[in-house]
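Read as chain and fold; for instance:
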Amino acid sequence: MEQKSYPKYRLPLDAIMIVGSELFPRIQELQSSLSGPTANTAIVDLLRSASLEHHLPKPPPLNPRRFAWSDASIVWLTSLIWGEIYIRGMTPLGIWNSTAVRLFYVKHTQAQQRQITETVSNVVGGLLGLIWIIPEA
């Protein structure tokens, strides 16, 4: 398998490659020397007991980033809080029970429906007009 190097999108697979290179010869040796269920059991035992700490690189130190509030995160938190207040208030004894308060409302107007109807009829009428124009062979 050819390994391509993309510096911007490179995955950190070094540890996995080291583990594979260390364990693969041992697993092949067990497979060739044993057969059937005993080989499977021996391989599982090897994988459970393998210690590769001295082969793997040291983990880098943790570098946590501080959370910084932005306009988007404030809007998200405000929406979350008001959504929870609204949902809790819709219970049978909630503050908005039996009221006209809604979280949001979609208002339909007659002009929008007429415009959609005209658009659909223009498209369909245009397609039907093309059908009638096409000569029959």
About this structure: Residues 71-100 form one domain.
